[in-house]
Amino acid sequence: MSEPLQSTLAAEHAAVWLYALLGARTSASTQPTLHDTLSAAYVAHRGRRDVLVGLLRDDGEEPVAAEPSYVAPGPLEDGDQVRAAAQEAETATAAAWAYLVAHTTGERRRTAIAALRDAAVRHVGFGGAPSVDPADPADPADPADPATTG
Amino acid sequence: MPIVPTRRTALTAPLAVLGVVGLAGLAGCRDGAGGNGTDAPADAVDADSAVVDEAVRALATARVAVSTAAAPYPEVTATVGPLLALHDAQLMILDADDAGIATPSSPTSAPTSSPATPAASPDEALAAVREVETDLTADLVVLAVTAGSGALARTLATMAAAVDQHLLGLVVAP
Fold this sequence. Notes:
The complex is a heterodimer. By secondary structure, chain A is mainly alpha-helical. Chain A has helices at residues 2-24, 32-58, 79-102, 106-125, 146-149. Chain A contains five helices and no strands. The radius of gyration of chain A is 16 Å and the shape is globular. Chain B has five helices and no strands. Chains A and B meet through helix 1, helix 3 and helix 4 of A and helix 3, helix 4 and helix 5 of B.
């Protein structure tokens, strides 16, 4: 049972790291909306991370630690690239939480569903297109969405 | 790229392995992926069949209600187009032939009830659509929590999340 929790925690560690980086790469004065959105996402992922740590400790497990560092998913030279990185992070964490949904029951599953939905919404909030499966990185953008079909 | 990792660990690396449970129809819904991972007993399969039936019913009802609410207003009809397409895709997933789970033969049939009076304005129609979809997500979450199969739970949960995504864009173009 602990593997799904541990792998979801690993994903949240990565997201927390990335959002700290994205926030540092975004000017609060020239891009206040994006900066605020990134800050909110950072706080949200820290919260999810802490919930997972608590669940693992409840189970008597040692929560997996964050990696010393990670590789950013792409260049972060402008707002569009930052948004793209955030979208990727949200899809990745949505995938992690969806995996946890499949491997839990009851209240833990409900918690995982809530986190999955949050990630899916943030993905769109960062300019991502809706998809049929928000937790599948391979899922193409919704073909019915005019924003993705030009 | 000034970011030099101290370990060759891409951000997505720990996540790539997490897509193990895909949206490959519902063929895996009977594998007991949730819980202890053993084969699901027959009564659990029957219970999940009921969950699928209920999800199909909820999606079909929402689809008709949204279509009906939007019908008087072309701009609202255009706005909800992607949402209706999503529901069509979701109904196809639940009705997949390889699921091996009985579903209603006509999942897109009209519900037994529909709004008695049309919305008085596009904004009102859109508000009705939001209400329908919000109720749908709540139903999908309940069903996902109820599902015995982990794969089915994942499918229903991602369906709720997909609806959430579309709700963000539910505004009438000026």
